[in-house]
Design goal:
This protein is an alpha+beta fold. It has 14 helices and 16 strands. It has a six-stranded antiparallel beta sheet, covered by helices on one side. Helix 1 packs across helix 6. The chain is elongated, with a radius of gyration of 49 Å. The chain starts with a helix and ends with a strand.
Length: about 475
Amino acid sequence: MNNTTKKILFGTVGAAGLFLASSASVNADTTHHVVKNDTVWDLSQKYGVSIQSIEQLNKINTDTHLIREGQTLTIPTTGKTAAKTATKTSQVTVKAGDTLWALAQKYGTTVEKLRQLNGLASDAYLIHVGDVIKVDGQVTTTTTTNAQATSTVSSEASQTSQAAATASSEASQTSQAAATASSEASQTSQATATASSEANQTSQAAATASSEANQTSQAAATASSEASQAATPYVAANHVTYTVQAGDSLYTIAQKYGVTVDSLRQANTLGATLQVGQSLTVNDPTKNPQASVAASQAEQTPAQTTTTSQATQATQTTQAATTTNQVAQTTSQTTSQPAAQTQTSQASQTTQTSQQTQASQAQVATPSSYSVSALLSYAQTFTGVPYVLGGTTPAGFDCSGFTQYVFNHFGKNIGRTTYQQQYAGTKLAVSSAQPGDLLFWGAYGSAYHVGIYLGGSSYIAAPEPGESVSVKSFTYYQPSFAVHVN
């Protein structure tokens, strides 16, 4: 190679260097300030570059793909890697693990363009193995800007000297060979990354399936255990049998025998409702209902005797008044008229006194209170009545309409609204409430819900729209205070 050729070659290389410098200044990297909800995938679609190029340039973890709000990222420009894309649209056959996003990345296009090219819906993501998908181009082949610059400058230099053209051609071929090797290495790296990603996804899917299978197995075992427990009622050595009667509920039966509702459920296989004539087992009863009835009758017998005695006395008083009246009439035949009128008046007063005494005795014998167990049993007869806003009848109740209806049945006027009912008696702490008391939710003076306390942690109420009158537990819905109806 003579001196003239060397000079031309060095001039060519120098011109290429100047071209590369100017190209680098034009194609400077773009910066992006990360905002809320930004992802690496969104940025790759926005700027038309690959996820790998963004992550490599900014040293982002390729497993998690995490970026932070407020982080400044450098976005590679398309000038750094010029893409050669075939002008003709090509087709690919979907393989296992392919997705629209993976194909868009592989063929240098976007998911939206793939949807438009294949007539897919704007929200479609699902493709099937074996489908033939049209893509915007073939696999991207890259050539470095150095090769383009060298080729351009060499072309200009070739017009000046044949020797320089020959040298430039040789340099261009060398650069193209290097670019081809670089492209093949890049494709190999991408294929390896894709295979690794698919392997990770497969492993995660297998782990998820295994976890779901374990959970299903545990749920089945739990259900089997519960079904086994429910199918085998517990019967204690000390137990009695009770036949369900009209108006009975689990609560009233538990109250009769001094046991809990839970113990009745454990001792019997129960359906949704009790049936009249159904036989129930009561374990370890602490009360004897028959003995209680006998004691009650024994207490009532002296009261009846007293009432009978009082009635006899009243009859005798009346008879005495009648005799006096007869004497007065006889005396009136021999005495003056004023005297007879006086005796007759006295007899009349005696009769009135006797009648007042009888009326007073009858009022004392009338009970002035209601039975709490009867009130609770009556309230539970409305189980299943739907909630109706403003409802006050068995056709539909709201919470305060239900409590008003039940207490009215026993002669207690507690008011129509929750606001009125919170002042219908003595305010109590929930811990001091007794069965039959009202339970309120909300501050005193501005309560918004009411129910009737059954004992333990149970109450009955018309809950809310879409539900019906039912027995509830306040274990997770604590009332604010209670009121004992006066």
